[in-house]
Amino acid sequence: MNDAFDNAHFLFRRHQFVGHTEATCLACQAVYAVTAITRWIDGGTTPVCPRCQYDFVAPGRLAPEVLAAARARLFEPWEGMEPLKPGDWA
Ligand SMILES: [Zn+2]
Q: Domain tally for the chain?
């Protein structure tokens, strides 16, 4: 598991995209160029997916198993908690 995913809310910050040419959306699983991200929220620090508009964009092209593990933590219940939904942060 990548250290980046220790972030409880999976919100990635702009500085984490420095040095990356691609980004992966944890919500819709799209991969696109970082330059395709045109909207940054939270004062310009958090990227918003240009495809699905959720702020679950991770830097780099994630390996399928990493993406699957991240999505499992994001969208499925763990430790008795209710599953997290993108709308929780809307
Ligand atoms: Zn997306």
A: 1
pLDDT digits (tens, 9 = 90+) for 19-69: 999 999 999 999 999 999 999 998 999 999 999 999 999 999 999 999 998
CB-based neighbours (< 5 A) of ligand 1, an ion:
25, 27-28, 49, 51-52
Is 3 within a domain? no
48 belongs to a structural domain = yes
**pTM of this prediction?**
0.73
Q: How far is the CA of 22 from the centre of ligand 1 (A)?
A: 13
Burial of residue 10, with CB atoms counted within 10 A of its CB: 0-12 exposed, 13-18 middle, 19 or more buried: buried
Q: Which domain holds residue 34?
A: 14-76
What is the CA(54)–ligand 1 centre distance, in A? 6
Distance in Å, CA 81 to ligand 1 centroid: 24
Pair type for strands 57-59 and 46-48: unpaired
